[in-house]
Inverse folding.
């Protein structure tokens, strides 16, 4: 009995230690939740986000929050709490900086909105539910209409001078004001008879005046928009300064030039491995012919979902049998699949994933050419190399764990953690011989080359060096994309709602996790299972902060990013 008792106690201690690590309490987590909730509430309350009122209120909000955070005794915090503190401080600093920049733009451009105060005062009264006198409000609407029309005339006659960038800003602001004005009016319309009766004619006139002015501004802003290079893809290149600022925010201690050098180095490795696989297949150094053979090995029509299901289970079995990670039973059970629509495939020509795996495959109404490109772009070997990226141990497992361990950290989400984790698994499974055949190797290498290419084409685009067409040509010529798939990839990258650093997050994030694996697992300090379990249970954040947690790094309050992870891979 004593031996059994001791055994039970030892197991209990191990379980307790694991739980304390994965669910370690943080004095900062309530502040993180409160900050996010408070900011969200104020942004709902003050709908005119380009107004002196909004800027003053939010400036006070951020200043008060920074004081509150600085009142915390940093020296008394654990490493876990210091990570939370530094990430919250980073976000408040970034929000304050963005507010200051927006306010500066507002101050320099509000001359294009001489009628703004009329809309603001109407919206302020609606906000407190004040009854508004109908006849007086009708007069105010007439004044608004006259002021907007006078501004419109001034712009048409070039008495009001706006450069394209200013016109773009003014058009967005007028649209925002129009939305707030309409929402405020509908608050009273029909509910207050005297208001409704008096304003039913003047309100539509004011709305039309605002719409006309917004339309004119849009035309004046057209030169500001990136010109269509024939691809129909018009994004928003952010420029070098903004790109560098985002790198600092994501805790990437490299310049764009250094990042491109890293990508080219990884590309060279892929090239060498691709030649080896091509030679194994009997194509010598003509790897594009080997790639063509791989592309033409696709499932029969209608068979792809069954094949995906088999691939998903194959990957789960592989990572568990090789003791790489423990997959919760419910995670194995809970994942789902659906088909991407033809419209979705214009932006996502390959698989997507998360809670479900989204399958790109031909539909009856596609042209024969489009069907063939989709079949070739989602062949058996490409699919085998990407299903686990989207499901388990990739994104699906990430999201499963994120909702269960330290979920408050999801607000610190980084593409270098999200996409880097899945790309890291592509690297690790390559190292553990997941690829059974040279065709499988080419399938894995295609995606790895793709991620190298993403760094190069997305950075060159945002730095103003490449057009969308050059990006498309690069994917076709350098990686072997089908052209329609390359167009969809570039379209998704620049108009799909992704941040400017999103596409570089795959490879760089993967290299960060790979460097960390070398530091902790290959050195014998942790097992694969311990390493991967800890990362998932710490939740989403810049990978340098993951490293700080795993090595118990004593972070200073004035911490700045400094991890040169690529050097650790040499």
């Amino acid at each position: 009995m004593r031996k059994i008792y001791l055994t039970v106690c030892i197991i209990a201690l191990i379980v307790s230690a694991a739980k304390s690590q994965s669910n370690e309490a943080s004095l900062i987590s309530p502040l993180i939740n409160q900050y996010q909730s408070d900011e969200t509430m104020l942004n709902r309350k003050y709908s005119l986000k380009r107004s002196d009122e909004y800027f003053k209120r939010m400036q006070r909000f951020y200043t008060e929050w920074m004081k509150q955070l600085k009142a915390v005794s940093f020296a008394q915090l654990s490493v876990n709490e210091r990570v939370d503190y530094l990430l919250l401080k980073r976000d408040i600093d970034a929000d304050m900086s963005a507010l200051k920049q927006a306010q500066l733009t507002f101050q320099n451009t509000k001359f294009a909105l001489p009628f703004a105060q009329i809309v603001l005062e109407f919206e302020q009264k609606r906000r407190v539910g004040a009854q508004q006198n109908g006849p007086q409000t009708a007069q105010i609407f007439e004044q608004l209409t006259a002021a907007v029309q006078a501004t419109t005339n001034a712009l048409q006659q070039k008495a009001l001078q706006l450069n394209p960038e200013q016109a773009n800003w003014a058009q967005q602001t007028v649209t925002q004001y129009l939305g707030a004005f309409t929402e405020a009016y509908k608050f009273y319309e029909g509910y207050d008879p005297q208001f409704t009766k008096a304003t039913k004619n003047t309100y539509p006139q004011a709305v039309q005046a605002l719409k006309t002015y917004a339309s004119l501004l849009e035309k004046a802003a057209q030169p500001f928009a990136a010109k269509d290079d024939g691809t129909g893809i018009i994004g928003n290149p952010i420029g070098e300064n903004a790109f560098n600022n985002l790198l600092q925010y994501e805790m990437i201690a490299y310049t764009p030039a250094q990042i491109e050098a890293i990508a080219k180095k990884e590309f060279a490795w892929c090239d060498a491995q691709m030649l080896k696989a091509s030679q194994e297949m009997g194509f010598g150094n003509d790897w594009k012919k080997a790639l063509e053979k791989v592309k033409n090995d696709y499932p029969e029509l209608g068979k792809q979902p069954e094949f995906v299901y088999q691939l998903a289970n194959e990957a789960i079995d592989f990572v568990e049998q090789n003791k790489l990670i423990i997959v919760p039973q419910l995670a194995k059970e809970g994942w789902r699949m659906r088909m991407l629509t033809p419209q979705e495939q214009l932006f996502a020509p390959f698989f997507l994933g998360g809670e479900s795996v989204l399958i790109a495959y031909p539909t009856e109404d596609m042209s024969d050419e489009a069907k063939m490109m989709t079949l070739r772009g989602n062949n058996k070997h490409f699919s085998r190399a990407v299903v686990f990226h989207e499901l388990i141990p990739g994104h699906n497992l990430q999201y499963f764990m994120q909702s269960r361990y330290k979920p408050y950290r999801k607000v610190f989400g980084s593409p270098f953690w999200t996409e880097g984790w899945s790309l890291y698994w592509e690297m690790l499974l390559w190292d553990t011989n997941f690829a059974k055949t040279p065709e499988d190797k080419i399938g894995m290498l295609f995606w790895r080359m793709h991620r190298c290419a993403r760094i190069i084409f997305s950075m060159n685009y945002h730095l103003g060096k490449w057009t969308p067409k050059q990006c498309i040509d690069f994917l076709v010529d350098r990686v072997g994309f089908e052209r329609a798939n390359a167009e969809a990839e570039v379209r998704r990258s620049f108009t799909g709602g992704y941040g400017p650093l999103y596409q570089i997050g795959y490879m760089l994030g993967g290299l960060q996790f790979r460097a960390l694996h070398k530091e902790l697992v290959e050195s014998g300090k942790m097992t694969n299972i311990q390493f991967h379990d800890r990362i998932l249970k710490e939740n989403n954040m810049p990978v340098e902060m993951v490293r700080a947690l795993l090595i118990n790094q004593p972070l200073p309050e004035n911490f700045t990013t400094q991890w040169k992870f690529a050097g650790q891979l040499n």
